[in-house]
Design a protein that fits this description.
Strand order of the largest sheet of chain A: 3-4-5-6
Number of helices of chain A: 12
Strand content of chain A: 5-15%
Number of helices of chain B: 3
Largest sheet of chain B: 3 strands, antiparallel
Largest sheet of chain A: 4 strands, antiparallel
Oligomer: heterodimer
Shape of chain B: extended
Shape of chain A: globular
Order of helices and strands of chain B: HHEEEH
Radius of gyration of chain A: 26 Å
Order of helices and strands of chain A: HHHEHHEEHHHEEEHHHH
Largest interface: A-B, 85 and 56 residues
Distance between the termini of chain A: 41 Å
Structural class of chain B: alpha+beta
Helix content of chain B: 40-55%
Strand order of the largest sheet of chain B: 1-2-3
Number of strands of chain B: 3
Structural class of chain A: alpha+beta
Amino acid sequence: MYVAVKGGERAIDNAHAWLAEERRGDTGVAELSIAQIREQLALSVARVMAEGSLYDPDLAALAIKQARGDLIEAVFLIRAYRTTLPRFGASNPVETAQMVCDRRISATFKDLPGGQILGPTFDYTHRLLDFALAAEGLDPAPAPQVAAPDGALPHVTDFLAREDLIQPEADGPATPRDLTREPLDFPADRPLRLQALTRGDEGFVLSMAYSTQRGYGRTHPFVGELRIGTVAVEMEIPELGFAIELGEVVLTECETVNQFMGSKTEPPQFTRGYGLVFGQSERKAISMALVDRSLRWEELGEDNVGAPAQDQEFVLYHADNVQATGFLEHIKLPHYVDFQSELELIRRLRAEALGGQAREAAE
Amino acid sequence: MSVTDPAIIARQARLSTLAKAPAARLCALFAAYAPEQPTHALLRAPEIGTVMLRGRAGATGAPFNLGEMTVTRCAVRLASGAVGHGHVQGRDADAARTAALIDALCEDGQVAAIEAAILAPLRAEAAAHKQARATRAAATKVAFFTMVRGDNA
C-alpha cells in the first residue's frame, strides 16, 4: 500500500522551531552557558560522559543543554558525535593505584593505610532541601584544607592478596574485544562485560545490582574500596616511539570483596567484583561491581540459580539505554501499513466469529 | 616500554605537560614567548579524534575498554627542519598547533628559554591545582578515636 511520506516536512520544521523556543524557555530568565552546566551540574555531565562513552566535559554539557536536560537524549547526541571522530589509538591501561584521590573509603578495614577520606560526598547530609541555594549570589565558605601527605594510596585488595585470601586477577588479551566496533556476541568474556556495564544505563545497572542484594543471585558483597579521583591517560605515540600522557580523567572505582565458600574448582577465598566509571559516579561504580561479580558465576564454578543478574545475555542486551530507547520509541513512528493489515484481520475474524454465533443462535 | 635516553625522557615530560595544560593558558604563554608565530609547515594539520581508554579488571587483571576521550593532534616542521608533535586533551586546534610549535622550538635548541617561560609555569600551576584538591581531601580524612571504658583506667 502506498503511504504518503511527504507533507510532514513543514510540520516537522515548525515543530523543531518550537522546540528551540521551548528549550530557551522564558527569555526573561538568563540563558544557561555550557560552562555553567559543566561546573554546576557536574554529576549530570559525568553520567552523560560515562553512558555516552566519551570523556569530554564541554561536549557533555552542550549535549545536556541541547537535550533540555534529558540525559538519555544527551547520551544519544554524544554517541552520535563520537562516531564522526577518527580513533587515534588506545591508551595503556590506566593505573588506578596511582589515582590522586578526592575520596577513598573502605567498608572492610577501618584503619587502612592512607585512611578513610570522605571527599565531597552527599553521605551524612540530611537530605533536607537547602533554601539558601535558592537565593543566588551566595558563595560557599571555602572548604577547610590541611597538609596532604605525598604518595599514592594502596588498594585494599592488595592487603588481602598478600595473604592469598583473595582470588588473583587473571591477565587477558592486550587488545580486548570492543563492542563499539563489533557486534556484541555471546559468550561475552569479562572485559567485554565490563565495557558494556561501564557504559550501561545507571538505572538499569543499579536495579540489576539491587536484585542480587535482595536475593536474586546473592553474592555477599562488601565494598572493599571505593575511590574517586584523577588518573593520567598515557598512550604510545607511534611517530615518536615512546609513550606520553595525553590528559587526565576523573574516574570512580569500586572493588568489592565477596564471601566465597569455594566450589568444585576454586578453594575458599574472597572473590572480586569490579566497577570503573568515568567521572564522579559512585552509585554506578558500586552497581557495576555487584553485577560484574554476579556475572562471574560460571568462571568461579558457582551454581546458576536462574537469577536475571546471572544471565549475561539478559544483562548486556538490556543495559544500553540508547539501544533500548531506539527500539522502544520506534513504535510511535508510522506503522500505518502494518496496522492496516491488523485492522483487516480483526474485522474478518470478528465477522466470522459473529457470523458463527448468529448461525448457532438460529439453529 | 621503558625509556632511558635523557633527551627522550625530557621530551616525554614536556609533551605530557603540554597535553594536560589548559588550552587558553597554553596559548597565552606561547603568545607571550613568541609574539610572532614562527614560520612553519604543517606536517599534519590539527586533527580532532579520540583515544580509547582502557582499564583493567580488578585494577590489575585483563584490560577492558572503558570509553574514549577527545584528543587533538598536530605536527609541524620549522624552517630549520626541526619537527614538533603536539597532542592535547580536548578539541582545540590552536592548542594542538601551539604544543607542536613548542615541541619543535625545543628540538631547535630553545629548551632552556621555553622551560623557563612556558613549561615551568605550566607545571607549577598544575601542581598548585593538584595541591588545592589534595589539601581539601586531606581535611575530610576521618580521625577515628576509641572510647576507653572507665574500668580499664
